[in-house]
């Protein structure tokens, strides 16, 4: 193969500088390195020149000023004599130094784009470790600072970070690309008595002086750096698993997640050993903007999955699965997001199937398929955002994070499974995680890997492009079909056609998923009297299952069933999970009167939401304009 001009140039520069720098890697080593970092349009860093390999944090958390401040130290891998470039967003940098010589280093923050700025540090020729002092802004986009009243127990304030996709740069100066990996350690000072947890080895108990140390010895991408601080307690669930929550939530959380250790064992059985030591889950206050976030060793989870009947725990299987797909083999750029999420949904469903059987898993699959079809309809059948491989250049990566990556990605893998046969496909996946562990993957390198390791021996005409680079769904895509849903569909139809009464609908053995299927199939403009009768029979407005409540509220809005509105208001004030907020606020904004009501609720709810949700809902409700 012909070496690229840029590679040759870089080698020339490297050789020219080799006596003035401490570059130690050999040429071939360097060439190898060079191919490691994909071009990421969402980071200003230039890791092919200078990359961080370890980060050491020493920070304190001030709930009064809502500022994190302290020191960060970076160990560098230098491949040429360029500056060290980091991503920052709203950070104040007060001093930068060479750690070995203690000499100050020149630095400058250059204005970037709406997602962040560029911190440029002028390195000395021998600098291999850089230290800096910094502080965050009180409205850092990764952080949600909560008053005690916004937590479950109301005993202490709470703080958590959300790094994915490009928010870590708002709480740590960092080379914020998923293609880069670092190990880290941290000293974190919090108010006395509070507990701090990170995506690292964690304490079991809080300590009175509020001083915690953390170590993450496995290299992770920056979006997986995470911190939470609050009044927290721990309960073990098994030899390798446990749950952290506010004390008042601990028992219900432990009950809900009782099968976690089994999930972990099932996952290992499927796709090889778990690489991260312990697997714990942290249950956050309801302002958490996602269902779950796969922070290594410590998944962050919304309390809205605690339904009391363990019916929403596929989310835990999902976040656990990311310990392989995402955290071990990581999408190189956000354009390759489907490699994280599509694989994870496939893996999640296989865990659920292993634990609860095929008919249970197929209900989840059909719900996912319904979501996907709706998303494709909304985006447009021809929209490039329905490709698996995305083009998010100059856009917020958040824009590409739709059901397409998750559910079309899932269907693609299920399709591959059907072609190769389950046994062969499982073998392939197991190896994929093993061979590519702690590496990053672009869509193109995955295709190459797939062709060499699975498709080479398969004698069939296989059109990958149709799946990966084309819109919508290929004609021969698998269609998940749940038999249990078929009977739900027929009873719903009979009821809608007034062939049966509400009191004749047998729901005793329905799971949450059958309820979701039933409710999703109710037409938008159904007569509100009909909803009232359903409500009277099944107490849907009062449902403590967030998934059921959310779809029920949607129907209440579209049918103007006002009896549900006080509960809807309470839900919107409390829950910050974007997946629920988006459909509710968008249904509300479809009528003049409801929109006014929604804006009123939002004005009181907004402070309870994380920036991730605020950004979306502000836009949805034209908040600034109002
Ligand atoms: N990694 C995602 C959450 C995420 C995606 C955060 C994109 C920021 C940007 C997480 O694993 C996830 O997919 N969560 C889902 C739940 C899952 C069961 C589909 C969620 O939060 O709804
Ligand atoms: Zn996920």
Task: State the main characteristics.
Immunoglobulin-like; 20 strands; 19 helices; Neutral Protease, domain 2; alpha+beta; 4 domains; 626 residues; binds zinc ion
Care to describe what's here?
By secondary structure, the protein is an alpha+beta fold. It has four domains: 1-36, no CATH class; 50-311, Sandwich (Immunoglobulin-like), CATH 2.60.40.1730; 329-468, Orthogonal Bundle (Neutral Protease, domain 2); 483-620, Serine Threonine Protein Phosphatase 5, Tetratricopeptide repeat (Alpha Horseshoe). 37% of the residues lie in helices and 19% in strands. The chain has helices at 5-17, 27-34, 247-256, 260-271, 314-321, 337-356, 358-379, 403-420, 422-435, 443-453, 464-468, 483-496, 512-520, 528-538, 546-558, 565-574, 578-588, 592-605, 611-620; strands at 50-62, 67-78, 84-88, 92-98, 107-113, 116-121, 129-135, 143-146, 158-161, 182-189, 195-198, 211-220, 227-230, 233-236, 241-245, 279-283, 292-293, 298-301, 329-331, 439-441. A six-stranded mixed beta sheet has the order 4-7-2-1-10-12, with no helix packed on it. Helix 4 (260-271) packs across helix 5 and helix 6 packs across helix 8. It is globular, with a radius of gyration of 25 Å. Mean pLDDT is 94; it is low at 1-27. Residues 318, 322, 341, 344 line the site of zinc ion (ZN).
